[in-house]
Specification:
globular, disordered C terminus, TIM Barrel, 40% helix
Length: 370
């Protein structure tokens, strides 16, 4: 089995509009495609004669142990893909021993998710309704969430043409369970050439979010704070200076600025800018264990994976997600051993090279392990 098998299984069961909501990007989907192409263009230079008889995938992520340096990215409205939605995905994360980032627009309430997953992080968008935002922060602390993840690359939702052409709306039984019952009413009003979800987010999200607000949020909670959607090294350094615990190098899976740099191509510069003062995660285009290893070799602490989880969820609920995560761990263990890495900490010693550049002193990145 590969993640491509899970993708085919999901495509066979989902309605076309839901499939497009899952798979689509913004604009011409150039950045969506580039995220994957960046991984395909990067190659590892394995080392030999290292004892890899006991290869280990275990890692420390935000100061907590994880079975591998992988977490599940925040994704909205997961009951669109399976009746058990976020509950199934979170239970699968618990079984796999990895963090689960609960989307603010989840179809199960936060407390229902933390009840089945001890490694739950809550994703936040910056809301016009500050009372609701503050309430969510308080609920996260009370429910036992272990981090907050503020998404910073959605001052407005981009034009996602698949959803607009489909006049995509939420079915009546799909609700944002962390919001008041009437909050997602606009996401059910269909209109030609319009995404109702885009209309709803324009009403709910506040585009005035600035660094002052990040500083305010940092002062509101003692939970680890993660900023998701950082691509510029200067932004990463500024986040670290404000006491942010981690940044996620991300272009929102190709769903925001079409033409934005692939996340993988921005990773090394971000890692250099923060100089180890904050953890650096990556999402966008991660499909297999070798992708995880490439991100680690470029300096990432961990990666977040999104669409493959929804493929598994769509195909077979919790068991489908568990299979996707189990496969990812097996592939990572295999990639570590075959590249000469006894554990994930060795990955930063690997050399990486662009596929269209000859291997030379000018074209490689070397780490300190060997």
């Amino acid at each position: 089995m590969t993640s491509a098998d899970a993708r085919r299984a999901a495509a066979s069961v989902l309605p076309q509009g839901v499939w497009d909501f899952l798979e689509g990007g913004s604009g011409s989907e150039a950045t969506l495609a580039a995220n994957r192409a960046a991984f395909d263009d990067l190659f590892l230079v394995p080392r030999v004669l290292a004892d890899v008889s006991g290869t280990r995938t275990a890692a420390t992520v935000l100061g907590a142990p994880a079975a591998m340096p992988v977490g599940i990215a925040p994704m909205a409205y997961q009951r669109l893909f399976h009746p058990d939605g976020e509950s199934a995905a979170a239970q699968a994360a618990e079984t796999a021993g990895v963090p689960y980032v609960a989307g603010m627009l989840s179809t199960y309430a936060l407390e229902e998710i933390t009840a089945v997953c001890s490694r739950t992080w809550l994703q936040l968008y910056w809301l016009r309704d500050r009372v609701l935002l503050t309430d969510l922060i308080d609920r996260a602390e009370a429910a036992g969430c272990t981090a907050l993840v503020l998404t910073v690359d959605v001052p407005r939702m981009a034009r996602r043409l698949r959803d607009m052409r489909n006049a995509f709306t939420l079915p009546p039984d799909i609700v944002a369970a962390n919001f008041p019952a009437t909050a997602t009413r606009s996401a059910r009003r269909g209109e030609a050439n319009t995404s109702a979800v885009m209309v709803h987010t324009s009403e709910a999200f506040d585009p005035t979010l600035t660094w002052n607000d990040v500083a305010w949020l940092r002062g509101q909670t003692e939970l680890p704070l993660v900023l998701k959607g950082v691509l510029h090294p200067e932004d990463a350094a500024r986040a670290a200076g404000l006491g942010v615990d981690a940044v996620v190098v991300s272009n929102h899976g190709g769903r925001q600025l079409d033409g934005a740099v692939p996340a993988l191509n921005a990773l090394a510069a971000v890692c250099a800018a923060v100089e180890g003062s904050t953890e650096v995660f990556l999402d966008g285009g991660v499909r297999g264990g070798t992708d995880v290893l490439k991100a680690l070799a470029l300096g990432a602490t961990a990666v977040l994976t999104g669409r493959p989880v929804l493929w598994g969820l769509s195909a077979d609920g919790q068991r489908g997600v568990e299979r996707v995560l189990s496969l990812l761990r097996a592939e990572l263990e295999d990639a570590l051993a075959l590249s000469g890495c006894a554990d994930v900490s060795w990955a930063k010693g690997l050399t990486v090279v662009s596929g269209n550049v000859p291997l030379s002193s000018a074209s490689v990145r070397r780490g300190p392990r060997w």
